[in-house]
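dumping this here so i dont lose it
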């Protein structure tokens, strides 16, 4: 057990943002939990972190975030190793880029199972452990698409809007436990999901891909590190473009937000 070190449990840790967060927190001396359906990917990352930082610094395991039983087993095993849970990072997510009606209904359900049900499962299972740790917090990966629904990303946008609302509600509910709940809202990040699935959208071609996984990892670190978590915002946009859209979503009427979104998407 390594209970003297702070710990973070990361879903979707095998690549992209999850991997960048794991590497950042390991460098800072935390114990990192690497969980993903990609068992080979997380084992390779674990070995890399162990070589750099020592054998007690990384734990990995297979986790399908849509499966609550797997969540319970993975979380219990992780806390047995660490003795504590300081941060839960709900990072695992998938995207579908296609007209809503052209996508089989089963694929919409698959996305919701991972992006929404997975976050709900994680928060529900993690709370008993988080509330035992002073200053603990849950951080959810959201998206700028939660600010206004995006054509060709309809169900993905809806899933991230759900994550945003869940974050707000739980941050209020869990204040009595001393647990903060926050989200991170990037625009397009240079990860495999964007390159392979989202890059074909006209919006991406218009705005470009200006963020890296390390940019998001730095923001997650800022939210995890301060000693006074109550001063932190519930929502944290990443990058100047996202900050601009975030401000516009608050100040601009819906009809204009919709018009701008449609124009960028070539609709």
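and the seq i came up w/
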């Amino acid at each position: 057990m390594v209970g003297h070190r702070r710990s973070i449990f990361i879903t979707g840790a095998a690549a992209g943002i999850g991997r960048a967060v794991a590497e950042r927190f390991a460098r800072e001396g935390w114990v990192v939990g690497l969980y993903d359906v990609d068992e080979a990917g997380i084992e390779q990352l674990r070995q890399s972190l162990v070589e750099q930082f020592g054998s007690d610094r990384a734990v990995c395991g297979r986790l399908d975030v849509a499966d609550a039983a797997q969540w319970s087993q993975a979380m219990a095993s992780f806390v047995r190793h660490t003795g504590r849970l300081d941060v839960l990072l709900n990072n695992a997510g998938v995207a579908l880029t296609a007209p809503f009606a052209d996508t089989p209904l089963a694929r919409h359900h698959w996305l919701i199972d991972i992006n929404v049900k997975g976050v709900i499962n994680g928060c529900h299972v993690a709370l008993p452990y988080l509330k035992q740790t002073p200053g603990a917090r849950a951080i959810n990966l959201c998206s700028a698409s939660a600010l206004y629904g995006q054509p060709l990303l309809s169900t993905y946008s809806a899933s991230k809007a759900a994550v945003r609302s869940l974050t707000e509600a739980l941050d209020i509910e869990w204040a009595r436990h001393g647990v903060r709940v926050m989200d991170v809202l990037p625009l397009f990040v240079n990860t495999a999901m964007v390159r392979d699935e989202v890059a074909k959208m006209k919006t991406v071609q218009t705005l470009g891909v200006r963020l890296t996984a390390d940019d998001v990892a730095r923001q997650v670190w800022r939210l995890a590190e301060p000693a006074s978590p109550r001063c932190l915002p519930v929502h944290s946009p990443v990058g100047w473009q996202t900050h601009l859209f975030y401000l516009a979503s608050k100040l601009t009427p819906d009809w204009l937000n919709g018009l701008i979104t449609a124009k960028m998407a070539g609709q």
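The CA atoms of residues 188 and 194 lie 7 Å apart.
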